[in-house]
């Protein structure tokens, strides 16, 4: 009986970890279709037709990331249309967007890739459906066809 009691905390911890991982996967699965639809709508509204669009929710938060390919000119026009601000990536940056770049998941936050973004639920991130993004950070190197978005749904 004593061996059972000693192993119970480890079993409870293992079950909790399994549930947490399972919840994150369920959250991603349950919200991915809406995310794909919303990101496609945002991109299309600004003349971007993404190829290989791959979106996923990050953990059980409102944050998400999407990687895609599109002609560099379209991605650069998107940044201008959304009025994205270039993010200073210097280690001592005081840019309020710098923190968001630091939080970006590995697939978006590749070191050295230029980033631009908008935060504070700007009008440019509102969708026709009524939903909105609280922030959006675009990772895109000049002339490249690969891009990645780190974004978060707004509350309300």
Describe this structure in words.
This protein has 156 residues and is an alpha+beta fold. Helices cover 38% and strands 23% of the residues. The chain contains three helices and six strands. A six-stranded antiparallel beta sheet has the order 1-2-6-5-4-3. A hairpin with a 6-residue loop joins strand 5 and strand 6. The longest helix has 44 residues. The radius of gyration is 19 Å and the shape is globular.
Describe, in short, the structure shown.
The protein has 156 residues and is an alpha+beta fold. The protein contains three helices and six strands.
* Radius of gyration (Å): 19 Å
Q: Cα distance, first to last residue? A: 51 Å
So what's the overall shape?
A: globular
Task: Name the helix and strand elements from N-terminus to C-terminus, one letter apiece.
Answer: HEEHEHEEE
> What order do the strands of the largest sheet run in, or round the barrel if closed?
1-2-6-5-4-3
Low-confidence runs of at least 5 consecutive residues: 14-21
Provide a count of the helices.
Answer: 3
List keywords for this structure.
23% strand; 3 helices; 156 residues; alpha+beta; single chain
Explain the layout of strands and helices.
Blueprint: H1 2-45, E1 51-57, E2 63-69, H2 72-81, E3 85-86, H3 98-103, E4 115-119, E5 133-139, E6 146-153
Antiparallel strand pairs: 1-2, 2-6, 3-4, 4-5, 5-6
């Amino acid at each position: 009986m004593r061996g059972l009691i000693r192993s119970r905390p480890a079993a409870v911890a293992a079950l909790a970890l399994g549930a947490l991982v399972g919840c994150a996967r369920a959250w991603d699965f349950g919200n991915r279709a809406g995310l794909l639809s919303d990101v496609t709508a945002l991109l299309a509204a600004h003349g971007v037709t993404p190829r290989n669009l791959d979106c996923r929710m990050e953990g059980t938060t409102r944050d998400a990331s999407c990687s895609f390919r599109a002609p560099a000119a379209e991605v650069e026009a998107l940044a201008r249309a959304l009025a994205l601000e270039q993010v200073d990536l210097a280690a001592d940056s005081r840019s309020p967007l710098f923190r968001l770049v630091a939080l970006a998941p590995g697939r978006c936050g590749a070191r050295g890739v230029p980033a631009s973004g908008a935060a504070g639920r700007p009008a440019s991130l509102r969708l026709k459906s009524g939903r909105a993004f609280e922030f959006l950070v675009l990772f895109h190197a000049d002339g490249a066809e690969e891009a990645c978005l780190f974004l978060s749904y707004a509350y309300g």
